[in-house]
Amino acid sequence: MVLVMKLNAFCWNVADGLLPDDQLSDFQRDRMLKELPPLIDYAGYVLFFPSLFAGPAFDYSEYRQWIDTTMFDVPTTVEPAKRPPVLTGKISWNRLQNIDPLAVETAQNPRAYLGGWNMNTSNWLRNYIYLRVTPRGKKPGFRASLMTFGTSAFWHGFHPGYYMSFILASFIQTSAKNFRRYVRPFFLDPHTGKPTPNKKIYDFICPIATQLIFSFVVVPFLVLSFRDSWEVWRRLHYFAIVGVQLVMVFFASPAKGFLRKQLETRQAKGRFFGPRPSLSRNASTDSVSSTHPVLGVADNIEKDVTEMVEEIKAEIEAKQKSLKKD
Questions:
Q1: Which residue, 116, 122, 121, is CA-closest to 103?
Q2: Which residues, including other chains, have CB under 8 Å from residue 232's CB and lie 6 or more apart?
Q3: What distance in Å separates the CA atoms of residue 203 and residue 180, rounded to the nearest whole number?
Q4: d(CA 120, CA 291)
Q5: First CA to last CA distance, the chain
Q6: Of 29, 98, 37, which is closest to residue 63 (Cα–Cα)?
Q7: Which long-range CB contacts under 8 A does 68-74 form with residues at least 24 apart?
Q8: What are the residue boundaries of the structural domains of the chain, listed by start?
Q9: How far is CA 319 from CA 19, 133, 313, in A?
Q10: How far apart are CA 9 and CA 127, in angstroms?
Q11: Which residues pair with 188 in a beta bridge?
């Protein structure tokens, strides 16, 4: 599984090296390979024993920079003993950190939970699947989420439990996103944007709910078979599935519009008393880096599906025309 990530990333890095720089993102320019490495170097990267089976996966450029020490910004003209003392003695070894246990156990929402779990796999899914299937100039939508989910499930294997967990997790993440967007702002002061006294209740309930829900979600991931997974869910009274359905129905009802109007009213009052940041841009202590993918369902699925169908039709027509010319 780790080898799949490394080989896939390597192929994309080589492909990026064939493109003009103006067509690449900063991340792609940093990881691209203009020339193929020697066979020995390539074998060393692929079969690097500390991460061969258990990971974490990393890009070839990181491996090469570590081997030749170019990742360390150290002047070569000055002897180490003659350099001024600028080190604190505190060393950070988190460049390839694969899990943040504290972030997982204290996560307030599914995104923060997933952001602290299997971090390098999340980075691979985002940089080499989620963003790669998105046409240039467009934002990732339903197709990107669908392809990311499918790749992640297929990467794990063919057991039904994997797909049960990933499908349910994607809908849970979408429900949590709606809660964070339309409910959380009520626990923030509309004037200052700071937490209200009731925010402590919100912060207390959210981590508990997140842990309970994901304890339900990962059951099929461990049991694997559909029959046994469904039996465990049945004995748990399908509480997470029922909860997600209720939340999605709630936010698909006029209640969503009512909450939006209430938020607009509170935000208008905040502007009246003084300027403050937009409610949708409040910083959060449990937010995760943008390097982590979002596997939730898009807000406007119909629009994204229509665009996807139109793009597929255009590709088919283009291939048909090229075949006729040949």
A1: 116
A2: 219, 220, 223
A3: 12
A4: 10
A5: 40
A6: 37
A7: none
A8: 1-78, 101-271+293-299
A9: 22, 19, 10
A10: 9
A11: 195
Measured CA to CA in angstroms, residue 52 lies from 95, 116, 117, 188 at distances of 17, 22, 19, 47
DSSP state string for 176-233: HHHHHHHTGGGGB-TTT-PBPTTHHHHHHHHHHHHHHHHHHHTHHHHH-SHHHHHHHH
Question: Taking a C-beta distance cutoff of 8 angstroms, is the pair 22, 61 a contact?
Answer: no
Token pair for 85 = 């003392």
Over its length of 326 residues, how does the chain's per-residue pLDDT go in tens digits? 889 999 999 999 999 999 998 888 899 999 999 999 999 999 999 988 878 887 788 999 999 988 887 777 665 565 666 665 556 667 777 778 888 999 999 998 888 888 888 888 888 988 999 888 887 777 776 677 778 878 888 888 889 999 999 888 888 888 888 888 898 888 888 877 788 888 899 899 999 999 999 999 999 999 999 999 999 999 999 999 999 999 989 988 898 888 888 888 887 776 655 554 444 444 443 333 444 444 444 445 556 656 666 766 777 777 777 777 76
| DSSP secondary structure letter of residue 100 | -
Q: Which residues contact 207 (CB under 8 A, 6 or more apart)?
A: 106, 107, 108
Tokens in use for 159?
A: 């057991």
pTM of the model: 0.71
Residues across the chain: 326
The whole-angstrom separation of Cα 143 and Cα 85 is 52
In angstroms, the Cα distances linking 186 to 126, 189, 198, 264 are 31, 8, 9, 11
Buried b (16+ CB within 10 A) or exposed e, 14-36: bebbeeeeeeeeeebeebbbeee
